[in-house]
Design goal:
Pfam families: Ank, OmpA
Protein name: OmpA-like domain-containing protein
CATH class of the largest domain: Mainly Alpha
Shape: globular
Number of strands: 4
GO cellular component, one term: membrane
Helix content: 40-55%
Radius of gyration: 26 Å
Strand order of the largest sheet: 1-4-2-3
Keywords: ANK repeat, Membrane, Repeat, Signal
InterPro entries: Ankyrin_rpt, Ankyrin_rpt-contain_sf, Multifunctional_regulatory, OmpA-like, OmpA-like_sf
Distance between the termini: 63 Å
């Protein structure tokens, strides 16, 4: 892939790969790679290889896409190795487009039989390599459809799109809804349109949503219905009303998104709307694992959201539930020093004497509490106040863990 990588570095220097990140991505680069394999003499991807690309697309869709390189190879002895390797790269590219990757961000190259054509195993199947470059991080509510967001965003007025490929030109100039008819796999059609629906919902673009609904898409997923009720216009909410009524938030997409919305402080008001009985959040809360209960509780505490903590408690969530390391939400807000979180948690009834796997209580955590990496320790009077809050709620200052008693300097 050396020439392709050189091409990528040239584009980066030219500034063609840098786009405004609507979701606020971090600056550090993200790179991932994968391979798919072909039968001898063939350029079509078998179902198993298509699924590998789907998994690859799901992984990169958590971040902000810059470019993808697909390099096809052929084996010595195959017919017209240059053309065959190019067709394999094009086949890979076409599959990625069906998965919601912007076509003009996929660069393809055929290496003929000039490089290692085979997988490094006993299958001896010719391959295509795929490499992704982007940036880490995005707001939680855009995880899972960032590539589609990029595809749509780059077609907005005033946006310039890097034309990485020419053939077929219609792919590079197609908006997502124009490309949709080329997708024949029913599951992928649902996946593609569900992602594009989310773009319309988050952009409050009723016109786009009408266009998508005119394509007669299948029933909405839990994620789409949740996004519609949390962020959508009245029109969007009406479109997904029937999906909301039969919503199963315990399915993976709905469950994960509900937690992300609950824990995303920038959407605090919308997160509260998820408690509507018609959203069936109470039913979901009763199915949470202990570790999930800890996360939901911690998020509410960090917002100092007394109402949310009461809602969780009234729906069967244990405010002292432990994760895999035995830590409770109270351990967490003490460790990353959050006086407001400590105060509301003990007031709501969290156990101040809960012990983690090492026997450490929240009081032990005060000895090493800090505001976060590279931000330093709280002031002595702040630690004393936190100590007083915990002991007033019943925390036992004489309890010992495997290291001994709680360090004296923390005590008031």
């Amino acid at each position: 892939m050396q020439s392709a990588k050189h091409f990528l570095s040239v584009l980066a220097v030219a500034g063609l790969l840098v786009h405004a990140n609507d979701a606020g991505a971090y600056s550090n680069k993200a790179t991932f790679a994968a391979e798919v394999f072909f039968e001898q003499g063939d350029d079509a991807l078998a179902t198993a290889q298509q699924e590998k690309l789907r998994a690859f697309a799901d992984r990169i869709d958590k971040h902000q896409l810059e470019v993808i390189i697909a390099v096809g190879h052929a084996a010595p002895g195959e017919t017209d190795t240059k053309a065959l390797s190019e067709r394999r790269a094009a086949s890979t590219r076409f599959t990625l487009i069906q998965l919601g990757i912007p076509p003009y961000r996929i660069y393809t190259e055929g290496k003929a039989d000039t490089q290692a054509a085979y997988a490094q195993d006993a299958t001896q199947m010719p391959r295509a390599e795929i490499e992704y470059v982007g940036t880490y991080g995005a707001a939680p509510y855009t995880h899972g459809f960032n590539s589609m967001w990029t595809w749509h965003r780059d077609f907005l007025p005033g946006q310039e799109r890097p034309q990485l490929n020419n053939p077929p030109a219609t792919w590079d100039t197609s908006r997502p809804e124009q490309f949709f008819p080329a997708i024949t796999n029913p599951a992928w059609r649902l996946r593609f349109l569900d992602k594009y629906r989310l773009v319309a919902i988050l952009r409050n673009d009723d016109s786009l949503l009408r266009e998508i609904e005119n394509l007669r898409p299948p029933a909405a997923s839990a994620q789409t219905a949740l996004m519609a009720i949390a962020f959508g216009t009245p029109f969007a909410q009406s479109v997904f009303a029937s999906a909301i009524d039969r919503l199963d938030v315990t399915e993976p997409g709905g469950h994960e998104l509900a937690e992300q919305l609950w824990c995303d402080n920038s959407w605090r008001t919308s997160a509260r709307r998820l408690s509507f009985p018609r959203m069936k959040i109470p039913q979901m809360l009763r199915t949470l694992s202990a570790a999930e209960q800890k996360r939901w509780t911690e998020c509410a505490a960090r917002r100092t959201d007394v109402e949310a903590l009461g809602f969780l408690k009234s729906n069967g969530v244990n405010l002292s539930a432990r994760n895999e390391q035995g830590e409770t939400a109270l351990h967490a807000v003490v460790s990353r020093f959050d006086p407001g979180g400590i105060r509301v948690l003990v007031a709501a009834g969290a156990d101040p004497n809960a012990q983690d796997a090492s026997g450490r209580t929240p009081l032990h955590g005060l000895a090493s509490a800090n505001y976060g990496p590279m931000t330093g320790r709280p002031q002595a009077d702040q630690l004393r106040q936190a100590w007083a809050t915990l002991t007033a709620a019943g925390a036992n200052p004489s309890i010992q863990d495997y290291r001994g008693s709680i360090p004296a300097p923390v005590k008031p």
